[in-house]
Amino acid sequence: MISEKNIASEFKGFWSESLPLLTPSFVRVFNEGNLSDLTDYPCSEIRRVPIGLQIEKHDLVAEFAFQLARLAHDKSIWVEELKLNNDYMDSAYSRAISFLKKYQGEERNVALNVEEIKDSLALAEQYDYFLEKQKGTNVEFSPAVAGAGFLGVCRADLSIDNTLYEVKTVSRNIAGKDIKQLLIYLALQYSTGQRRWVNAGFYNPRKAHFYKFSIDHLVYRTSGGKSTSELFSDVIDFLCSRGVEIDTAF
């Protein structure tokens, strides 16, 4: 099944036409100009969580950490409290496995070793600190975004007030495909007629970095002057194209 991640990584013809200025040079400047280091905050408890030698299941560790943070928020408790409850830990782990199966499909050995569990908990704690610093009044993990065309209902990562954050628990900088994936979520939400987010960003709990920027400004800069409504209409039209649906291997 095709996903928003596939769409962001492939279909180069569509993206180069819609976002001609989303070049490697732009992405490099974007990383330099929009990155905020959370460890620079005064008296910050936020820290970097480097990948240890015994961390092998990177995707599962990242998703388990996200689901731990999500459950802690939903239950209004800290991750430190969450880890004392086996039922909560099992629930977060099951959610992580289900999510990865949706995108990766195949069955495999997914048992985490002791160090991977510790790493997941350390990453989850960073969400606690990040949310505390943002001081948002309306926080939602995994907000649902309506589908369009051949793309079904999606789940974005993290909504804080009028800002949608995509979480990237990676060692690299933000890439062009990450920006495209975020724009897909924003276009889908925009197509409902209710503009929920006016800002967007990225959060990396491993590197203790976050980015926040105006959606309109990003669209204008990467599309060569299009309005947000024009670009998002192009994205929706593309997703609803019968030709793309027929030519794509699901």
Write a structural description.
By secondary structure, the chain is α+β, with helices and mostly antiparallel strands. It folds into two domains: about 140 residues, no CATH class; about 90 residues, no CATH class. The chain is built from eleven helices and eight strands. Strands 1-8-7-6-5-2 form a six-stranded mixed beta sheet. Helix 4 packs across helix 6 and helix 8 packs across helix 10. It is globular, with a radius of gyration of 18 Å. The protein starts with a helix and ends with a helix.
Can you give me a brief rundown of this structure?
37% of the residues are buried. This protein folds into 2 domains: 4-39 and 140-247, no CATH class; 42-135, no CATH class. The chain has 11 helices and 8 strands.
Structural key phrases:
two-stranded antiparallel ribbon, alpha+beta, 8 strands, 2 domains, 250 residues, globular
